Amino acid sequence: MTVTDSEAPSLADLIAVLDGLYPPGTAQSWDQVGLVSGDPDQPVQRIHLAVDPTLAVIEEARDAGADLLITHHPLLLRGVHSVATTSAKGASVTALVVADLALYVAHTNADVARPGVNDALAQAAGLEETVPLAERDGQSLGLVGDLPEPMSLEAFARMLAEALPPAPVGVRVSGRADGDVRRVAVLGGAGDDAFDDVRASGADVYVTADLRHHPALEAREEARGGPPYLIDAGHWATESLWLQGAADRIRAALGARADSVDLHVSTLRTDPWDFLVPSGDPAQRLGGPR
User: Fold this and answer.
1) What residues form the annotated binding site for a divalent metal cation?
2) pLDDT of the residue at 280
3) Any idea which positions bind a divalent metal cation (predicted)?
């Protein structure tokens, strides 16, 4: 697509669209969302969407000629005291500025949006008629809904793994393979602080990511071997599903101006893990099964 700068929307126009879809005021207090780099007056002809603003993603967006990079995760979440290229953060900021590439972040405000990150995950899980899992500071946290028909935990986990983008570690499952699953709670990204809400929801299985040893073990102890079972589906995988829907909603919100903008969803995997080494049959190690 070739358009003139005068035909393309400005970055300020795109900020207005994004702020409307994912209001910054709905982000959690600790979060850093919104415009990170860029001139609001610059024209935007190409938009790149990704989960993480890594150096590889920034280079991909730059090489594609993008004017705006939209990511789910912030680049500058914690205090930064130098942007020298000797650090990855500094190199990222420098690459954005040198390439005249704007960066906009929609993080926890995209999590609570409807539709947002959790709607995309719920759709991948095959859920119907979802409702919020819980509320925090007046905003919805996660979703819970039912499958059209019950299935075994193993069958559900395999179906979910097929629906998610491939990642080296795959999905980790805690629970009986033949356990019945009908009601499912989902929370994209890190979610091991919501176990009380999951239990209160009556979910048979909880799909989230970044489950730490102690909280997950305590949750399974509380369940006495029954539901809610746990599925750790990976942080990047559970949140990358949101990108295509976000691109579609941006295009729709631009209206007639959408014809002057290219939108591209990155396929770069920014999951930090690269490969998995199986450890053998756990039933034959450390004294057998628990």
Assistant:
1) 72-73, 111, 235, 239
2) 77
3) 72-73, 111, 235, 239
Strands 139-152 and 180-190: antiparallel
Count each helix (H run) and each strand (E run) in the chain, helices first.
10, 11
Residue 93 CB: number of other CB atoms within 10 A? 23
CB neighbourhood size of 177 (10 A): 11
Over range 19-24, report the average pLDDT: 98
- For a pLDDT cut of 70, what percent of the chain falls above it? 95
Percentages helix, strand, coil for the chain (3-state, rounded to 5) are 35, 25, 40
> What is the arrangement of strands in the sheet containing 172-174, beginning at the earlier edge strand?
128-136, 139-152, 180-190, 205-209, 229-232, 172-174
pLDDT at 3: 44
Binding-site positions read 72-73, 111, 235, 239
Q: What is the pLDDT of residues 163-212, one digit of tens each?
A: 999 999 899 999 999 999 999 999 999 999 999 999 999 999 999 999 99
Q: Which long-range contacts (CB under 8 A, 24 or more apart) does 89-96 make?
A: 91/55, 92/53, 92/54, 92/55, 92/58, 93/37, 95/55, 95/58, 95/59, 95/62, 96/36, 96/37, 96/38, 96/58, 96/69
The segment(s) of the chain belonging to CATH 3.40.1390.30 are 11-110+240-265, 112-233
Q: Which residues pair with 186 in a beta bridge?
A: 143, 207
Cα 115 from Cα 151, distance rounded (Å): 26
112-233 to CATH, choices 3.40.50.300, 3.40.190.10, 3.40.1390.30, 3.30.460.80: 3.40.1390.30
